[in-house]
Amino acid sequence: MEAKILNSLIQKSGLSQRDFAAKFDLPEQRVSGWLNGVRNIKMSTLKKMAEELGFEIVLSFEVRKS
């Protein structure tokens, strides 16, 4: 789930993966690892990144229909 949120955040920011990494002073390989599921990113980190970019992460839950 975190990788999908991160991917969406990068896309909505209009930044390339490289520029996104540079903005947060991160190695591009770390961002790539998060996106590929090789590394884990905390939701609190995603929240901070989103806020810095002017976004808010909103999660919702729905009952599945059988």
Automatic annotation (TrEMBL):
CDD domains: HTH_XRE. Gene3D superfamilies: lambda repressor-like DNA-binding domains. This is Helix-turn-helix. It comes from the Bacteria. One of its GO terms (molecular function) is DNA binding. SMART domains: HTH_XRE. Transmembrane segments: none annotated. It comes from Flavobacterium johnsoniae (Cytophaga johnsonae). InterPro entries: Cro/C1-type_HTH, Lambda_DNA-bd_dom_sf. Residues 6-60 form the HTH cro/C1-type domain.
